[in-house]
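Much of the work behind modern protein science is quiet bookkeeping, done one molecule at a time. Below is the pair of lines this work produces for a single protein:

***
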Amino acid sequence: MYATQVVGTATNLVSFDDAAPTILRSNIVITGMAASQVLVGLDARPSTGQLFGLGYNATQAADNARLYIINPTTGVATPVGAAAMTLALGSATDRIGFDFNPVVDRIRVVSTNKANYRLNPINGTVVDSDPVAAGTQRDGDLNPGNPSIAAAAYTNNFIGTGSTTLFVFDDVLSQLFIQTSPNTGLITAAGPATGIAFNPAVGVSMDINSTRTDENYLLISGAPGTSTSTQLYELNIGSGAATSKGVIGAGLPINNLTFATFAVDPVSPPIALTGQLLFALTGGNLISFDSNAPRIIRTSTPISNLAAGQTLVGLDFRPATGELFALGYNATATTANSQLYTVNPGTGALTAVGAAQQLTLGDATARIGFDFNPMVDRIRVVSSNNANYRLNPINGEIAGTDTNLNPAGGNISSAAYTNSGPGTAPTTTILYNYNAANNQLVRQDAPNTGTFTTVGSSGITVNAAAGVDFDIYFDPAAPAATQNKAFLVASTGTGSFVTSDRLYTVNLTTGAATEVEVIGAGMPISGVSALISGTVLSSNKASDKVSAQVDVFPNPATGEVSINMPAALLKQSVQATLVNALGQPVLHRTLSARDGATQRLSLTNVAKGIYMLQLSTPEGVVTKRLMVR
């Protein structure tokens, strides 16, 4: 765990094991923050594992706060976004809660002065709670009454979770509450007081660790009574009872301007991709991971623009174009219940393809398979209710309502075609499915008639109710016998593990499944697709002619890089984003014509390495490789 400690005029980042908090594992000075700011919040971002902090100047009325990414090894704090923001979090004696919402990837900030904010970790700005009103509006003040909320923590704080609860702590009442309506600020009591009166001059902080057994345990730090030595407690979420785990660092001196805030030790994803890059849907997010290391989630992006009432039930790359497609489905709608979308892998934004269609895919418990036929450029859609459709990716319409599936005592909820590679359409392809009822790999030899041939047993027993997802990666450079590599995503656990999906490889000759490992921390997956070999991840790539007009220099660059582009590309503002090797944005700036044809981008806080500079212009996205040294 990580905590902050004030030593003289410096703020240190310390780490310790929650089982032995008296022993500090590390103690380093935090550098890079604005001199006038105090670090008032700390948390690990579930989607990336990065350690985020909030700097705040209580004596300054405007531009008084900034998000930072803190390197836990060096203590260097890198500002997020182009500029500071304005937060009204009270005076130097007010206490501040800071925690990531793992579902939507936004930061909740609360204060003992009743303030309630959401922050965007990508650009370091306040999320506007009322876009219609002028200016930027914060969320509703904490209510009812005059609560003194000094700490906040979300449950299920792992990437890909579909649900979460926000717990907050009142340092005057020494009581745990649930912020039942986070954006309106409504709180309700979660249990009785802890029985420990914390010293408000020292402050309290808390975090919730979500284990892979889907259990949440809450840890809270504070100084009991009049003590100034901060102790670590385990707090029972149900009863509110607090159990001391010991003094932090044998009595960390925490002054009244900052306090022990902490976050679970983040895991840094590897840069090198050793297997296939797989994309999947989980909890309203588009995630990606290496097929050789699925436990480490490389990227997570919230899905946007999904029609109200719909859930994304299928995901696949289109071999003909390399675009990522998804299917939205509303099981309760009686008309136009399905919509085909393209998905921007970088932003998670959906774009509807044609008009909504009516598909009979079953109720909300039905499981649905979705995959492109590379020969004819049509999408096969199957369901555990035995529905069997073809969709047209050009106009989003139904290309065929085929004969219902007729597996022997089967439950078909996944589908994948072979030879789904880029370029010229193949002359042959085979449609494979997984029968979740008897755990067999089958072939849909006559796709339009719904008949099957058994390949063989997978050797595993899946939870059919949790769904099974299946895709086949085609490697045109591999020997013919190994060009098609199949991946299966399924849960084989029970109880709290029922939604903990794992990745398997599947032998297409025998049907045997071989486990790789759990995906992330054990998350429910509702669609999986392998990135097609040779695909460029951009749904709006600029032409080569446009890209040639943009010059980035010097390259390699140190401290600053210049971007030269014609006036035609600056007729609208251009969004410049620097993306690291993990696909994570590390720098963002808006470029405009008033700054001239040559724009300068500061690289002062950018680490050495290879990056992709993405410029979203009116003519499409221009991508340039940039080395920072």
